[in-house]
# Entry
Amino acid sequence: MSEDLRTERKGMLLAVKDLPTLPRVLEQVAKLLEDPLSSTEQVAKLISRDQVLSAKVLKMVNSPVYGFPGRISTIQHGLVLLGYNVIKGLIISTSVFELMTTSMSGLWEHSVGCAMACGVIAREAGFKEPEEYAVAGLLHDLGKVIVSLQLPEAKEEVEQAVAEGDLFYLEAEKKVLGFGHDRVNSWVADHWNLPLNLKVGISGHHRPVSAQHYPKMACVVHVGDFLTRVLEIGSGGEDHVPALDPQALELLGLDLSRLDIVLDAMVAEMEDDGLSMGLG
Amino acid sequence: MIPGRRQRFFLVSADAKKVVFFQELWPEQEVEWTIFQRGPMAVEQVFNAPPDLLLVDAELPQLSGTALVNMVKSENVYRQLPAVLCLGPEQLTAEMDFAGVEVDDFLLYPLSPVEARARLTLAVHRASRELDANPLTKLPGNTSIIHRIQDLIDRQEPFALAYVDLDHFKSFNDKYGFSRGDEVLMMSARVIVNIIRGFPGKLSFVGHVGGDDFVFILPADVMETACQRIVESFDGIVPHFYDQEDRDRGFILSTDRKGHMQQFPMMTISIAVLFNTDGRLRHFGEASQIAMNLKKKAKAQPGSCYVLDRRQ
# Structure
């Protein structure tokens, strides 16, 4: 594709103003914010179940206005630093998806499932602040949401190519758009001043081992994405499960027996929390 | 106009009609106007005894109004003085260079007395807000802090007062530079403000004394909970302001006051709290004296902590 077309599309994607979200989540968060007895932990937990609200919180807290761009990578910290007043404003200004296509709702569940998986993997691998890995898992497919909002026709073409050409979603994106959602994620991360570790997590999960900084972050999301697909939580837009990079597991110091532990923990957490966000 | 004392306003104008117009805006016991017909005559008086407001006619025979304003406002000690330029319709053009003229506001003469009063009153209030705000965090500064505390003492209202400062902030600044230090101060301000806001009420107040020193006021019964939350949030967030390497190591290498390389721990937060529950405080000075002693105690403990002064 020509450089001009790519720049034009990048511009259109980054111009995304209002990422709409699920009415149900929005309502619940709004209710919690009005409740004087609610805790930041409760609000953070709820927002962490929605990739769009989470992305908005991180975008705002990392904006230069607050004076520490690129520093904050968890929702809990974002809430403490922004405060309820700002969060309320953010909720008020978020619109809802009136029409939720099946592919979209599948993506929502897939993202939440991946967040859970990443948190469990990071804990199992013994990493500090597993919460950050969960955030990267939650946002790893944000590029797909942005493409479907800003370039809806291209998104349909991609889906068609997946169905007809028997392609992976990423391959189809590259064929139709000239770049994949991993690239969109990387653009958005820069544009929103997201911390580098999050950027790597959401833009490097398809080529995890080659990430220059924070390869562990990319590897956790890579493995998390894989496990979520194996467990068939939601849908990433295709039926195939992309291959698991064995080097990624090695880099995380996980073998298959420990992966079993991760899977068990995931299943337990899913049963505990349920993935029913009013979607299924 | 402004409750309290009589205001001193300066007007520099050679136009007798304007002088009468402005002089008649307020009764004499509220605003005392001093009139200067030429810019140079005003300069010395402004420098020696700055008024509460300086109103300058743009059209002056000698030393233009804008030159006069710039002369005064370019000195840091007079920056807080509200300066208003009085323009005629023909002078207000698109070429007006507000980046080069350091005025705080302008009036378009002729105008109604109601508007003139409102605009000048607003200019005075705005200046008092801006003067005192910390330039980095925009939180109220020392004057507001002292005023607030003294006011509570005078009204014998019970309150708890917390002095906050960061430990090892200096070594962080030395190693990472001032702009990274400012990031930490902005973060700390946000943490304190949001946690204090979680306890709404007329007592809640946060001020920035300067550098890494903050102050906040809360009702006595919620103070300890607030301190716990601040310590917990600060400790969770501050590691993200270090480079990965230092964060993993858990300390930084920097030079001490004597120029020797030394290990410094990660930044922590110390809070010293005193209570004025029985009206024992008479003066702000007492409060700050007690707080300073408590702060030493708080700082002597390793890690983030708060110390409550329970002598009552």
